[in-house]
Amino acid sequence: MDLAYLWFFIVGFFFIGYFVLDGFDFGVGMSLPFLGKDDTDRRVLINTIGPIWDLNETWLIVAGAAMFAAFPEWYASMFSGFYLALFLILVALILRGVSFEYRHQNKGREWTKWFDRMIFVGSVVPALLWGVAFANLIQGVPMDADNNFTGNLLTLLNPYGLLGGLTTLLLFFTHGVVFVSLKTTGDMRERAQALARRSGAVAILVAALFLGWTIFQHLDSPQLWLILTLALGAAVALIASWLFNAVGREGYAFAAIALTIVLAVGTILSALFPNVMPASNDPANGLTIESASSTPYTLNLMTWVAGISLPLILAYQAWTYWVFRKRITREAILTSAH
């Protein structure tokens, strides 16, 4: 296989890992107003992701670095053209990270409330805008002959882009709420399961509409069979997650919705292939895998580095999740406050 195509799949793998892992982080942050009846509840919610949220975010850094090294033209066109959207995502991630660290400084109720609001906003904005960005990638955006995006933020906020953003928002929210039910006990667990049933039902409808629209846009694609297969798999996995949650099997529900995100992003990548940033105004202005990639020497060196480091990264992440696998209880939070 040509190394440029291999690295397209590797970059896709990193983004899939990011959306699966930071996706439920976003969901937990968005659930604060819905599941946090008091400060202890909100501390329980935050503690479910406390040891792992920053580790999950490193997948975005790795994905961006891999894109920069393997596809510098893609990186330059996307990060300059989508600058405002990506800047808003960055600001939101900073606000969320700061809030996790500063809300517990015990400087009064209003202090804590402000940081809780920042966690919520800092989770909603990336969850929405990542979907908007990737939906526009596969739909195509206006570009000039130098591969520069010629639109603005409002160009990205078209009906299909907003539907993509709403889809990721609902998927991540449900993913996070299911994670809460997996990591908590008692009343919090039951309320999380009930909320996941409601949000999951809406997510099924919205995701079906988005995947259906995506398929309709690519009926002439040579890999239509792959797009259909992945989209159907995502739909089945999402419905299975809802059913598992309905019968109280949150472990299976979490695994199924994680698989949903994997297959949904796989659908987007297969619809994008062999392009990386198609132009909606003139196909000749778009970027393909081959035209956007680095030199063979660079890709070869990166492949050796990835082959050595990636297994270590995955092993460390698995070990971290194993260490912090226990459920969080209100009693433990109240005890630690004394």
Automatic annotation (TrEMBL):
InterPro entries on file: Cyt-d_oxidase_su2
Which UniProt keywords are present, listed alphabetically? Cell membrane, Electron transport, Heme, Iron, Membrane, Metal-binding, Transmembrane, Transmembrane helix, Transport
UniProt GO MF annotations: electron transfer activity; metal ion binding; oxidoreductase activity, acting on diphenols and related substances as donors, oxygen as acceptor
Q: Which GO BP terms, alphabetically?
A: aerobic electron transport chain
Can you supply one Gene Ontology CC term for this chain's record? plasma membrane
Q: Which residues cross the membrane?
A: 6-32, 74-98, 119-139, 159-180, 201-219, 225-244, 251-273, 301-324
* Membrane topology of the entry: Multi-pass membrane protein
Pfam families named among the record's database cross-references: Cyt_bd_oxida_II (PF02322)
Q: Where in the cell is it found?
A: Cell membrane
Q: What family, per the record?
A: Belongs to the cytochrome ubiquinol oxidase subunit 2 family.
Name of the molecule in the record: Cytochrome c oxidase assembly protein
Q: What is the lineage of its organism?
A: Bacteria, Bacillati, Actinomycetota, Actinomycetes, Micrococcales
Gene that encodes the chain:
cydB
